[in-house]
Amino acid sequence: MLEAVAKDGDTRIVYRDLPIFGPPSEDAARIAIAANEQGLYTAVHDAFMRERRPLTPAVMAEVVTGLGGNWQSLMKTIEAGGPTQRLVANRRDAMALGIVGTPTYVSGRFKYTGALTETQFEKAIDKARQN
Question: CA distances (Å), 101 to each of 91, 92, 97, in order?
């Protein structure tokens, strides 16, 4: 996806977390969303997706601080409720679009479920632009 977007040069990526693996997945999503206030959403999201250890609070704190994030500030953001509200809105929007699993991509008016190749992303971008 990132390569296709970089090649295109005029496409914006908007991540919308839809955790489907229970409480640890929801906690990871809240933390990534809260990390956005520190300019670290993408870095935290990507690090969590690559992490092979279970995403325990200690592991997530290590990842966030390793990326230069302030864990205490992040926890205050979560306690204020914004990340949870974002997840509720994401679930509502996913239901409205008929999204039931991840990964799902929306490009223009078109929805794609499952992993896509770089070429498939390029075609999705072109199709959205033509329609």
Answer: 11, 13, 11
